[in-house]
Every structure is written in structure tokens, then in C-alpha cells.
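Hi L.,

As promised, TonB-dependent receptor:
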Amino acid sequence: MLKSKLTAAVLAALAFGYASATLAATDATPAPSSPQDTSSTSQSDMQSDEAKKAKKLEAVTVTGSLIPQSQVETAQPVISITAEDMKARGFTTVAEALQQASFATGSVQGPQDNNSFTTGAQTVSMFGLPVGFTKFLIDGRPMGDFPGLYNGSDIFNNLSNIPQEMVDHIDILPGGQSSLYGSDAIAGVINIVLKKKVDAPVIDVRIGAFSDGGGSSQRISLADSFNVGAFNTMIGVQYEQKKPIWGYDRDLTKQYNLNGTTPPTASRDYLVLSGLTGKYVFLDPNNCSTVAAGYGGTEQKQYRQGRGYYCGSQYSAGYATLANKDKTANLYSHSTFDVNDSLQLYGDLLYNYEEQRYTSGSNTTFWGTSVATAGSTAGYFWDPNAGDLRLMQKIFTPEEVGGFSNIMSKQYESSYMLTLGGKGHFLENWDYDLGFTHSDDQLTNRDFQRFTGPIETYFANHVMGLQQGTYAGYPQFTPNYAALYNPVSPSDFRSFTGYTTSHAKTWDNMIRGQVTDQALFHMPGGDAGLAVVMEGGNQGWDSSPDPRLLQTITDINGNTQSYVYGTSATPGAGHRSRFATTGELRLPLLEQLTMDLSTRYDAYYVDKQTVDHTTFNVGLEYRPFETLLLRGRYGSAFKAPTLADEFQRPSGYYNSVTDYLNCARLGFSPAQAPTKCPPPYDSTQYHGETFGNPALQPITAKVWSYGFVWSPIERMSFSADYLHWNISNEVVQVDPDKLSKTEYLCDIGTLDPKSGTCAQAFSLITRGPGKGNLLGQITNIDTPKLNLANEEVNAISASFNYVQPVGAFGQLALALSYSDLLKHTTQDFIIDPKINVLREPFYSTDFKSKANGSLTWTKGDWGATVYFNRYGSTPNYLATVLNSYEAPGTGKLAPWILYNASVTYNPMKNLALSLLVNNLFNSMPPKDDSYPGTTNSPYNTDNYNVYGRAVYLEAKYSFGGSAK
């Protein structure tokens, strides 16, 4: 199949992109093509048929196919980001490059979520789908899982420590890809291709700082390639360190919201609340003067409208980190050894070490009666002297803790990925590749904690006194209220605080063999190609929290409490083996029409059970004329249950639920039951238990897409694709309230009592003995993870590339990208209606659309790029609370547009100097006046950031080669 004008036009239009990157990344000694190394060109033996040799050399293995081919554009849309793109557009990390891409429309947690489960990790959501629905590859091999759980439940991949200077390019495949890449490839595949050689020893140094302060960084990388006979190797190292950004570094987050729906409300650092009146009770005889030194002298007597007086600071929440303190070191090597013309041995090692520090500041550094003292009664105790129910709270200031920078939580991650193998060719047209890959990721979290026994003893001795029995079910105390308004010394603070140390790890072993024939037989459009893959291996996950997080103690008042104040954890561990086989057949039916067929069978062996699934894909490429490609795909995708979903250990809890079945028998509808049904059925206390489920089945999806690539003139290309996902059997934890409603619907016959849904509901709810027409009271509810939810997404993805020479003024290159979510519906439970998350903002704050583009000018030793990124509208805060765009005060925020700029100058061949400015105009998140005055972060931290303008200076020097 000869290279078409379309291919030539695309290659020209991507002159600064994927095509050049592919050539730059080739091995010093070409080897047979392999999906393990998407940047290697194929090589043929010395054959008598020179035409076959030339044709085979022309073919390149690209992400999205196992068969080398000459066409750049195929039935599979591919988005590529080169190392040159990342630098010119100002991206300072791989995570940033992916998160700013137009396909990354989903909200994701990150460092600004300083009290989340994975503050030290970064990831991406493709088209608003869950982060675990994207398959990440490094050089075509599955990337190891991060040991921490996203949002406390999902296994995912961490992008924060991939060495940017070792990356050659990144290929993104939107849409389901399981027929080639297996589990997780529902939203798409992201393949990070690392460099395979450098022309000469090279050193790259970069320093950066933010114009508003904090976050300064320094990075250095070194790389070299050398050959010794048949042995070729590249070695690279990178080290980077960053200072944190604190809330007080930014005007928007240094104090409580000045433009909210309520007046700015200082933190309630010293608070007494009446449970009978709902008002604050101010009992400091010194009017906060004894604590006035707190928060840099800003602690003072405050008034909250409608509530009353207390001691607090308008600036307390600024003492939390928005960006982590970070140190990262990476080592990368790629080596090959040519045994003979038919065999090349290879080995790859990527090692990463990252150390991060962060704190949520005063948000989680407090003592209050709501945690332990009167935790069983929502924090309220009875004071007989006052004749009132009271709640008390004390938030520690930086002066009391000895500075929040000295009590930061710490995360240490050490990971590596090692691959050893051999590849070559046999017979006339067959290539083979056999390799072993092992990945290992170990995580240690040292989290700053308060310990229940010591902190309760301290406040019992200084403020509360001992419990004096109970009154009407409430614990009874007669506190010394004046003592609450005294600062705690740093030494006393240290006496009831410290660190817990928790460990988690993941590991994965994979043996993979592939054979490929690019010319299996001849067809009217050319040679058919075949690739067959077999994989086998095992994987494991282990989460081992600090033992104290699982323990209880008896406090000074004789009550059973968690060892760690207000904090617990759930351990889990498990492993499984797996097997997969893949086949791909590429059929050039006609000169203009090509079909690509692929199928894959995956089997997982879990707890003496087999969980398996088969996926397929049919792709068509039609070229009615040389400058136009029409393409389409239809197939399936899947995601195996995660090890955390399968092996999370049991965790018990107590809660309350409405007994809809018994309330209905008493004459109350589901709408009336929570408020009008008599006790105990209106709110029945039960013991719940959640746990992993080894019997979970795969999440499945039907996927299809269609689109075109058009190159009307030389050096110009335009592509657009429509993508569809219909996802079933998503794993969710059972909701007790919905389970109770399901039981009721089964009881009245709305749902078939003999159905699997009803049998499941009946089995998960345990009741005591019944009486008359009523069933027994609910005593226990099991809430395991089950395959229950469904999701449907329609989206479009488009791009435009154009390169225009401008004579003596050099050359201009324009690149534009756009994505838009047209439909996104979810259904968590069978009795739930489908939710249109694009119109119901309570359920999603994702961007509906994103667009970005760059204009690059080059001439001789100079180059400059201007880049923009337009984030579409999202719901304002009040819309997410009220789940409405119609209620007063609700609405959508204005688009957020950021600009980056860079200039590179080569004063000599082997030296490149660059200036990069990110967020050129220091743009802050869109103004959202619907937030209340009780927050210091009046923006959605999962969508926006307040980092502002950053300036970087970079120098690259090549010892003997070119720095361009």
C-alpha cells in the first residue's frame, strides 16, 4: 500500500509533532517492529525481493495497532504530543500536558485537595469518565498501578513522577481499546513513549518561579547514548525540587471569601454553641485578648450574623498548602544487543522516587466535643449549670503547633518498571517479540495525627473535667469555659499529636509474546497483515495502614474511641493471576478500502474463580480520493474489577436508615416515610459492614466512533471524530437507603420479588423478629461493592494542523484541538432514573467542552510559541448545591482562558536558551459569587487553580550534538 498524499500532508502538517518524534526516537540499530516500543522502525533481512524490503522499511508500528503500516492515519483516531510540543507550550510535567489536553474534560482531584486520599498523586479523566477507565502504557507496556486509592476506593495510575525530559512523545487513543490493550481501556489509551537515543551527551537545566510567590522549582537532567560493538544503550537521569504554594500566597485564598452570598466568616477557633438556641455563647472574660497573637496577630473577637460572638481569624484557612513541596529523582535506561541478524536482546528500566509534603492546615487540626467527648450525640453534652445543651470547639493556631510547615504530612513513593526481552524475525516475513515486564510501586504515608487518648485527657484536665453521668441520653459535663480561651503551648500540642506510618504497594508481572506478519497474503488493496499476542502474569495489591488506625482505646471517661482522633482506615490485600490472547488482522480489501479486525480474550483467576471477558473491534478506512480518509470503528471494551474492589477487608460502622417497607405497611409513602413514619421506622439504627467482593464481574462497554481526516492542501490536515460509549456493570458500593427502597418495591410487587435484584436486596438486609403485619426491625445491612451502575457518553473530538512557510520570515505552524461532550448520563442503581449530568450539576462539575491551540514561528536559530487553553463553562457553586440552573443565584461560570508563551534561541549549534511564561496574564478562576463567606476557596479545586503566572528559564547544552 503506497503512502498516499493524505499521509504526506499529515506528516508535513505535523512537522513539529509525531512524525519527527518517531524518527528521533528510533533505536541506533533498527530492530523488528514491536508494540512494546512504538517508536522503533521495522527492519527486514537481506532479501532478494528489494521491493518487499523497501515496503517493510516504510512501515512503522504506531499506537493503536499491533501491525506495522505505512499510513499515519487509520481507523483509530490518535492524538500525539511531542517533547517539542510540551516545551514550546510551557508544560512543565507530563501530568500537566495531559490535563491541559482537550480530551481531559473531567474534574480530577490533585494537590489542592489537601485532605483527600491521594493528595500526592495526579491523573486525568478522559471525556468525564472515571480516572480508572484510562489505560496508561509506557512504551506500549502497562504502567504499574498507584498503591493509594483515588477518592478512597479506585485504583488508578499516578502521573506526577514521570521524567518529562526522558519522554519522546505521548500518543492518546480516545475510545475503547480493549480488543488490543485489555482491561481498563474504556475511555481510551495513553501511551508514553520514552526516548531511545540522544545524538550526544546532553544536559538540561530549568529554574522557575511564580510571580505571586511560592512554588519555585529547579530541575536538571542528563542523558547520553553510547555504542560498544553490538551493544547500544541510553541512560538518563532527572532531578527536580519544588517549594510548596500556601493559601496565604494568593489573594483569593489567604482569607475568607469577601464577595460571597454571606459576609466573610472567620474560623470558629474558640467556640461554644448552644444546642437549644442554635446561637453562639461567648464566655471569654478577656474578649479574645489572651489568644490575640494567633495567626500572626489576626485572632480577635468575631461576629457571625444570626449566630453571635466567638474568637477567630479571617486568615486561618490560608495556612494550608495548594501545591505540594516536592522532590523527585528518576533514572531511565534503554539498551539493546544485536546477537545476530535475526535476534536483538533489549532491556528497559525506569526508576522513580518522589517525596512530597503537604498539609490541610487548621482544617483538620482541632479539638471538639463532636469527635470523641460527645461524639455519639453529635457533639452536644448537657451542662446542668447552664441548663443547656452545649458543643465546644478549639482550632489550633500556627503559633500553638510550632508552624504548620513543621507538621506537614509526608508521602514517599518508590517505583520501578523493568523489561527484558528479545525480538527478531524468522522465515520470510515473520517478526517476533518475547519479553518479561515487572513493575513495582511502594508507597509510604506519614500522616500527621491527633491521638484520642492524650488529647481527650488534656482537655478533660484543662477544660471539660470528667463526665458526670448522662442526662436524657447526653453526656453531662460542667466545663471551665474560661480555660477554653487559653492558648496551648507547642510542647503540650506535641504531647497529643504525632505521625502514623502506613504502607501500600502494588506489583505486576507479565510475560508477553507476539508474532507478526506484515504480508500474510496478497489482496486487491495490498498485503494483509496479522499479529497474534499471548500474555500471562500476576499482580498484587496490599494496603497496610498503621496498626493504630485500626485500634480502639478506652478514653478518660470510660468510652470506647478510635486510637487516632477522628480517623480510621480500612486495610486490604490480594493478588490474582491472569492470561490473555489477542489477534489482529488487517485486510486491504481494495486500494481505497481497508478493514482492521481485532479480538482479545482476558481471564483473571481470583479466589478460585475465573473472571473472563472477550472483546472485539471492527475498523474501516475508506479513502475515496488521496486527500480524504473516512473512518469508523465498532467494538467492545471492559475493565476487570480492581484488586481493591475485590480484596478490601471488612469494615464495620453504625448508621441510620428509613425502613420504607414497614413504613409502607403503616400507610406512609416513600416521600412521607422519613418525616411522618413513627419511630423507630423513620430512622432505624443499624450495624453496617462494607467489604470487597471477589465475585465482581467485569465492567463492560459497547463503543463506536466515526470520523474523517481531510488534507485539502499540502501541509494542512483537519480531523473530526464522533465517539460513543455505552457502559454497563460499573462497580459501586451499595447505598443503604436505595437498598431499603428496593426491598419495599420488591415487597409491593413493583419489582419482581423473584428477580435477582430483589433476591440481592433481601439477602443484604437482616431483620429481627417481626410482629403482626410488620417485619422485624432492621438490625444489619451489608453494603458490599456490586456491579450496578450504567453510564452513556457521546463526544466529539476535532483537530486542525497547518504549516505555512513565510519566505525570509521563516515558518508558521498552527495547531488547534477541540472536544465537546454532547451527552453524559449515569444510573447508579436499577431503581434510579437516568441522570443527565450535563443538566443536573449536583452530579457533575466536568467541563462540557475544551479547546486549545498553538501558533509556532521558527526561523533559523529562533523559535517562539503562543499557546491558549479554553476551559468551557461549569456550574457555579449554588447550582451544584441546589442541582438546578433555574433557581435564583444559580448559573454557569464564564469560560476560563489561559495563555502560555515561549521563546527559544540557539546562540550556537549545541546550546538552546528558552524563556517560558505560563498563564501569561496571571488569570485567576472565573468569579463565582455564589459561594458563601465561610470558604476561603471560592472556586472548584478539581477544575481550577490559583497558581497564576509562572516564569521558567531553561538551558540545554549538547556536548557535540545539536541542542535543537
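Residues 7-58 have pLDDT under 50 and may be disordered.

Thanks again for sending the construct details.

K.
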